[in-house]
Amino acid sequence: MGLHESGEDYLETILVLKNRQGFVRSIDVANELGFSKPSISRAMSILRDNGYITIELGGNIVLTEKGKEKAGSVYERHIVITDFFVRALGVSLETAEKDACKIEHDISEETFIKIKKYLKNL
Question: Distance (Å, rounded) from C-alpha 34 to C-alpha 70?
Answer without folding.
Answer: 22
